Amino acid sequence: MDPISKVNLERITNGIYAFTMTLMVRNITTPVAGSITTDTSFVLYLVSVILEIIDFAGAFLILGMFWLFYFQMFHRMKTFDFRFIYLHLLSLMIVVFVPFTQSFASMSDEVPASNILFQVNYLALSLVLVWQWHHARTHIELLEPALEETEASFLAKKFLVPLGVAVLGVAFIWAGIGYIDILYLAPFVVLGLFFRSGPVKAG
Amino acid sequence: MDPISKVNLERITNGIYAFTMTLMVRNITTPVAGSITTDTSFVLYLVSVILEIIDFAGAFLILGMFWLFYFQMFHRMKTFDFRFIYLHLLSLMIVVFVPFTQSFASMSDEVPASNILFQVNYLALSLVLVWQWHHARTHIELLEPALEETEASFLAKKFLVPLGVAVLGVAFIWAGIGYIDILYLAPFVVLGLFFRSGPVKAG
Amino acid sequence: MDPISKVNLERITNGIYAFTMTLMVRNITTPVAGSITTDTSFVLYLVSVILEIIDFAGAFLILGMFWLFYFQMFHRMKTFDFRFIYLHLLSLMIVVFVPFTQSFASMSDEVPASNILFQVNYLALSLVLVWQWHHARTHIELLEPALEETEASFLAKKFLVPLGVAVLGVAFIWAGIGYIDILYLAPFVVLGLFFRSGPVKAG
Amino acid sequence: MDPISKVNLERITNGIYAFTMTLMVRNITTPVAGSITTDTSFVLYLVSVILEIIDFAGAFLILGMFWLFYFQMFHRMKTFDFRFIYLHLLSLMIVVFVPFTQSFASMSDEVPASNILFQVNYLALSLVLVWQWHHARTHIELLEPALEETEASFLAKKFLVPLGVAVLGVAFIWAGIGYIDILYLAPFVVLGLFFRSGPVKAG
């Protein structure tokens, strides 16, 4: 008998991603009560939060990407073992940290060190993703019998994209190039260019 | 093999709508601690938030309407492609913004510009809804085989209602008529009058 | 074709109840930062919130009761029509108000009028529950074909219990007896005594 | 007819665990606005919250453990009776308290009494878990017919582990040894060592 049914791991994953993605909008600074009394003060407020709004949208897309990755993974699996479930709980814990580490993004200009939190968070997420799929592929009894090797290895390459970007980000900082927010959206470009159509034959 | 199973896109959609609709109740200003000590001060507080309560109810109904629209759409689809999923993630991101943009509704009297946020949010939601159904209808392999053209086009017309209202709202503001909250509830009247019984034969 | 599939209304209902029940714990006043430095101050704090904790537990149980009622209702239904879905969205909106109205419970001693909010909220929930089941029973095509009339009428009586309690609460206040928190838990006693074993034969 | 369908109790359980696990991240103190202006002040802030982060991770894992326990239990059950559902609602109420009681963990050094809250919370969770499985095993009609006695008793022993740890914690405090946060993670070690491979034959 499986440790738990597959559907319940899918459900708690959906719940935690949905809640985390919704909660992040709270990181956008709301105006101090009574500070907005004219159109001018409203526009000034908007200008001051525009970067936070962009940061939120970026983090939302990143979480959406990992959510998609996980469900593409689950979709190719028949069942889970305990090791996989423990890894996944770890991965969910890292996801839950995102609204916390993302809340420091707006201070990245004056306080460069504050970026390290989101950086580490993103790296950890990418690592566990690759680890989980590696675990699944080396335990063939967890996989959908219909899954072809071409497709399994195609997914493995896809899951390496965010990890590559995270490592690149760390290298940039060490090389003194500084932190580039936009880098974290690079996976979308890479995925759009090279991983669009799926492996030949396994579509 | 589908990118992800249909049920999981439905689940995260339900999760995000459920949290967003629940979270919005937090936009109602709670009394400052210690400020309410008598029945009179309580009644004064209630009067001061009555408009916020109505605004909340309106936004809840609007989200409920989009939620219903999306599940009427999903119900007529067999599967999703990546393009549809990306559009839907965009749509969910716009939904998550609602508690943020809606929080400015209460200051609309003194700060007319503050309305633009909710206005843009509503317009964006309406646009993506129409876009998604257009995408589905032009990719016949995504649709339920049993779906008749009459019903598909009936849905398309229905989904145009909020977009029409959003455009009307922008026109009103440009024409200097000002912002009319109540306008956003107009779809319910239109839908109740003209879209009640479904297309003939496909009911 | 049904407006939406039954499972999705169940999902959003579960999501909204789960979130509302979880969010309410935030109504318990947390200590002011730095105010607790000794065991004595901690105990004093605990004493000051003990009533809020009990109020929270009561409201949690009440929501749990309505959640159970709704899933007992859904379990006996085959499909939903638009009218039923609109009523249910209304009911969910009323549920979402509970953390708001419940937050005034702790001030009920000094500000008797503050109780009216939770009172009205509870009454509205009870009314819509009865209304929805009445709608379902008068539209036989919505019900499970296997459902016997004895069971349908047994449920109808059960759903009247919270409404009866709500009316009693209003009567108490008009009669000047005042507000009795505990009254809202009365349904559990009534249900435990008279509705334990289900209708004879329909178990 | 069952009181409610099994899937809906699973759904609300997933929902409440997901929100509770996500909400807890809010217990980590965020910096006062404007207090972080240099890398040094950021590092000082990080040092001051490192214990809160560890506490959060511990509580997340503990909730993850109970979540896993419950779904291992549900997985072996065919249906639920009202008594089981009431016990489970009680258990969910205790779960919802965790973000509240956990928020006092960071003050445990100066205010030893503050630990009692989380201690009681953990003990209550453990007790209801054992109680629910006891109820299921003594009502054979609730269990999966395929469930073997070896596996049922293996689960019963597993569910005793957190209860044993909770009792040990209380004993430690009475013996004046003081509160040891780390103790609450002991179940993972015990489970890893003795409950890894499942009962012989029923694995």
Automatic annotation (TrEMBL), chains A, B, C, D:
Name of one Pfam family that matches: TMEM175
Keywords: Ion channel, Ion transport, Membrane, Potassium, Potassium channel, Potassium transport, Transmembrane, Transmembrane helix, Transport
The keyword Transmembrane helix belongs to this UniProt entry's keyword annotation: yes
Protein's cellular compartments: Membrane
Reaction(s) catalysed by this chain's protein: K(+)(in) = K(+)(out)
GO cellular component terms given for this protein: membrane
Family: Belongs to the TMEM175 family.
Primary location: membrane
Name of the protein: Putative integral membrane protein
UniProt topology in membrane: Multi-pass membrane protein
Top-rank lineage group of the source organism: Archaea
GO molecular function: potassium channel activity; proton channel activity
Transmembrane annotation, as ranges: 42-71, 83-104, 116-134, 155-176
